[in-house]
Amino acid sequence: MKKVNTKNHTCLEIFAKQTADGGKVRVLSRNADGSVQSVEKLAGRTYFAWLKIPLKQNTDYEIYSEECEVSLCYLSGSGDMLEEGVCYLEKNPADDRFYVPDQAAWYDRPSRESYHFSPWKNWMNDPNGLCWFQGYYHMFYQFNPHGQQWSNMYWGHAASRDLVHWVHFPVVLAPQEEILERPEEWKGGAFSGCAVASEEEVVFYLTRHKGPLQDGEDTVEQQWMMKSRDMIHFSEETCVIGQPPEGASFDFRDPKVLRANDRWYMALGSAIEGKGAILLYESRDGEQWEYVHPLLVEEREEVRCFECPDFMELDGKYVAIGAWMEHRDECGRYQMSRYYTGTWHNREFEIESDGWFDFGSNCYAMQSFAHQGRRISIGWISDFYEEHAADENGAYGSMTIPRELHVKNGKLYMTPVREMDLLKGEALAQGRGENLSLPKIEGNAYRAEIKFDKNTCFTILLGKDKERELSLVNDKDGLRLVTKGVKSEGIRFRADVEEVRTLEIYVDGRTAEVYVNEGEAAGTKVFYNSSADGCFALDAEAPEHVAWVEVAGMKSIWH
Ligand code: FRU
C-alpha cells in the first residue's frame, strides 16, 4: 500500500469537490500499538473546498479520496518552509492513493518549460507581489488550481534564493466564497497586485474582483491591502480603495505601489472616456489613499484599459509600462505592452519616448521590483493566439526569464539577469565564420549566443514539428519572429531595431525568448513541439559575418 511520509511537514492541503454525496478525503496512520487512526473531511459540495488536515511530522500516512475530484494537493507547514516549500502529491489512478512524484520528472515533458518558472499544474497568469524579503525573492501569481483555463483567481506563491531556482509555496489567497458558490452568476477573485517590502514586513496591494460573467457596469473592482512578516502567514485583507474615481471605467485594477519622497504612489490600470489610462493615487502611510489624476492616458484608440501597469524610477528617468487590453496593432499582434519613459515632477509624468515592451507579444502583465540597485522584471508568458496544446496534468502559462531593465537614450533595455548563467550546461556546438545546424537537441532546453560583425540577413530555425515552425528572420523587412503552420502564422512579430549585432536566444520546451543587441529588444513566443527534442539552425546569407555562435544546453531548475 502506498504511503506518504510527511518528513518535516505538518499539514495536508487539498482542494476537493464531491462527485457524489458524502465525497471525502481520508487520511490514515498507524499508532505505535498497531491501531489505525483515521481522519476524514468532506469535500466541497458545489466547488473545490480548500481542506487543511493537520498531520504529524515524520509519519507515514495513507491518503486517499472517495467520490470526489481533487484538483491540487500538497504537504505544507514545514518548520523550514522557506527552504523546503510544499511537497506536491498526486493520485495514483491504479489504487486511488496519493504518492509523491519526482519533481524533475514531473516537469520533464515536451509541453513544459524546464528552466522557466511554471506552476506544478494548471492555469497561471500574471506575476504578482514580486519582491525580495529577508534573503528570498518572492513571486506570487494569478492561479487557477482547478484546471488549465482561466477561472476564479487564487494567488499561487513561490520563492527563490537566486531568481532562477524556485520552491513552491502554499496557495495564499482564494476567491470570495460568494463567487465560488454561484459560478453561473459571478466570476472574480483575488486579482493582480504588488508587494512593497521593507526590512520587517511586506505590504501587499491587490484587486478584489466581483462581477457578472460578462464584464460591464455591474463589475466591481476594489483595491485591498494585506501584510506579512514572514511570507508564510498573511494578515486579513482590508479595503483601501472602494470605487473608481469619477469618469474612470469599471476596469479599475492591478495596483502597483512605489515609495518616493516620503510618499506612497499607486498606479492603477483603467480607462477614461474610452481611452486606456493609468491612474495615480497618493498616500502618506500606505493606508489612506487619495486620487491625484491620470498618470497617463493613451491617445491611440482601441485600448480597452491598461492592465497591470508599472511605474518606476530607472536610470535617472521615470518609466511607466502597461498592457494594452483588447488592442491589435498594425502587425496583427494582440495585447502588446507599451513602455513610456520620461520625467516626473510635481506628480506630473512628462513622456519623452515610448516603445513596445516585447515584440513577440506572448509576454504580458510584466511586473518589476528593485533589489540592490537592480530593477528586475518578470512577465507572464501568455498565449493570445490560442496555440496551447493541453496535456494531462500539464500547466498553461509560465513566467519569462527575470529581466534586468535599463533606460538608454530613451529606450528600454532588457537583458536576462546574470543568474541565468548558473543554468548554462555544456556547449553543444561553437563556431565562427560559418553557419551552424543542430537538427536534434535532446530535451529542447538551450541557449544560443550569436555575434555578427556586420548586420546580415539570416534565418534561425528555433522550432520544427512536422510542418509547424518557429524561426527568427532578419532581412529587408527587419528582424522578426516568424511562425508557420500555427494560428499566429502571418502576424508580424517585428523588433524595433535598425540592425542586429548580438542575439541571446533561450529555447525551453514550449517557449522561446530572444534578446537582441544586449537588450535593445526582447521577444517572447510560445511554440509547442510534440517531441522532446528541439533544433537550432543558423542560416546567415553571409556566414563570414558570424563573429561567434555557440549553442549550450540549459539545466532544469526543478532538480
Ligand atoms: C491581466 C489580468 C489583470 C487581472 C488578472 C485577472 O492578465 O486580466 O488585469 O488582475 O489578469 O486574472
Helix and strand layout, with pairings?
Blueprint: E1 4-5, E2 11-18, E3 24-30, E4 36-42, E5 49-54, E6 60-66, E7 68-76, H1 81-84, E8 87-88, E9 90-91, E10 98-99, H2 103-107, E11 122-133, E12 136-144, E13 154-160, E14 167-173, H3 177-181, E15 186-197, E16 202-212, E17 220-228, E18 238-241, E19 253-260, E20 263-272, E21 275-283, E22 290-297, E23 306-314, E24 317-324, E25 337-345, E26 348-356, E27 363-371, E28 374-381, E29 395-396, E30 398-399, E31 403-408, E32 411-416, E33 424-431, E34 436-441, E35 445-452, E36 458-465, E37 468-475, E38 478-484, E39 493-494, E40 502-508, E41 511-516, E42 521-526, E43 534-540, E44 546-554
Parallel strand pairs: 11-29
Antiparallel strand pairs: 1-6, 2-5, 2-7, 3-4, 3-6, 7-8, 9-10, 11-12, 12-13, 13-14, 15-16, 16-17, 17-18, 19-20, 20-21, 21-22, 23-24, 24-25, 25-26, 27-28, 28-30, 28-31, 31-32, 33-44, 34-43, 35-40, 35-44, 36-37, 36-43, 37-38, 38-39, 40-41, 41-42
The structure holds beta-D-fructofuranose.
Beta-D-fructofuranose binds at residues 125-126, 142, 153, 191-192, 207, 253-254, 307-308, 364-365.
Tell me briefly what this model is:
This protein is mainly beta. The chain is about 5% helix and about 55% strand. The strands form ten sheets. A six-stranded antiparallel beta sheet has the order 33-44-35-40-41-42, with no helix packed on it. It has a six-stranded antiparallel beta sheet with strand order 34-43-36-37-38-39, with no helix packed on it. The protein has a five-stranded mixed beta sheet with strand order 14-13-12-11-29.
